[in-house]
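We both want to read discrete structure tokens more fluently, so let's practise on a single case. Would you write everything just below, so we can both look at the same thing?
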Amino acid sequence: MKLHAPWEKAFNKIATPFEHFLHAQTTTGLILMMTTVIALILANSPLADAYSHFFHTYAKVGFGSFELSQSIHHWINDGLMAIFFFIVGLEIKREILVGELSNIKVAILPILAAIGGMIMPALIYLFINSGGEGANGWGIPMATDIAFAISALVLLGNRVSAPLVTFLVALAIVDDLGAVVVIALFYTEQIAMQPLAFAFVSFLVMIAFNRFGIHATLPYFIMGVVMWVFMLESGVHATIAGVIAAMAIPSKPKFAPVEFTQHTQNLLQEYDNYPIATDHTMHERQKAILQNIKDRIDSVSSPASKLEHSLHLPVSLIVIPLFALANAGISIDFSSIGETIIEPVSLGIIAGLIIGKVLGIAGVAWLAIKLGIARLPEGSNMSQIFGVAFLGGIGFTMSIFVAELAFVGNAEMIFQAKVGILAASLFAGGFGYIWLRYIAKQEKELIN
């Protein structure tokens, strides 16, 4: 009788990189939800002071005369989140090279929708906060939290078509790229040119590694850390180093797939020529053949795809939860929550993430389809695009991140921003899910 461990079914199932990506984002979304709830509980419990004190404790890292001293909160936001942005960079690169963004006919709709979904929320926010103290927070409602949004779609199962899921993924990737550009260009106060120049040289060294055919990840890791340090010293937000480093990682395998196939077939034939021992042990030559096949499998996979696959789990289980714990915990006074929500910052974010995202994403998509510039994802309708536009209003991770940059040192503004982000994300996610589950599936809209 053959026994199976519980995880063997998952082992036997062949999943594409895109399926792995969806699974990782769904896992991230669920964990993010749990850690956000924990952070809110801690911030509103007798442990609130200890919780706040912990993340404001300073930790030093250094060697010789060089030393970096940051609070744990900043180590998470500036350091660990660089790994998150590295993953974002790898995802952007994959989508452009071989994903949905590689085919302009397919990519044009999510690209245009994403641009609309960034511009409209920013304009609405600025309209509400024009000339006010919170005007600098215009970038906050531009972002879409890809993990939460995809989690909502995955929970809908076969109620939404696969192309619609792909549309949201492509839209969120373009949105992430836009957020990175906004952070780099508009949320950098002072730039020290010498460290920035050294960061650029570090990037050029990584490009040289790529051009010389270096596929080992250690050299890229070392130069990536060096670039991160220089970026931190330059004044440009250090997490941008993660995205830039991802652009230098090789996306082509060391050996062509055709060579791998022929070589592996020859090795398997040689492996089968050895008789099976009575105790089912392998011949030493068979062990060597298996090791050779394993090495070939590693060499036929690109460093970029291996890093994206291997880093998703630690980012999902460590980086994102720590970010949520450090940033989502806000002390809520329910007696004054109504007053906080109608503050210009909170109101601008709520209006931007809900009204702005829907007008920007669904409105631009509808216009592009009407003008014949783009076409609907297969098996979907405009009602479903409307529901997806609401899911695009789940800002959370990136929105909180931008809020921390927009209102540095202003605790009251950050508090108002986080209240707005949480309220808008909760409403947008809930309404978008209900719309797609109970309303959109019943409608059969046609675009002429």
The first strand starts at residue 58 and ends at 63. Residues 1-12, 442-448 have pLDDT under 50 and may be disordered.
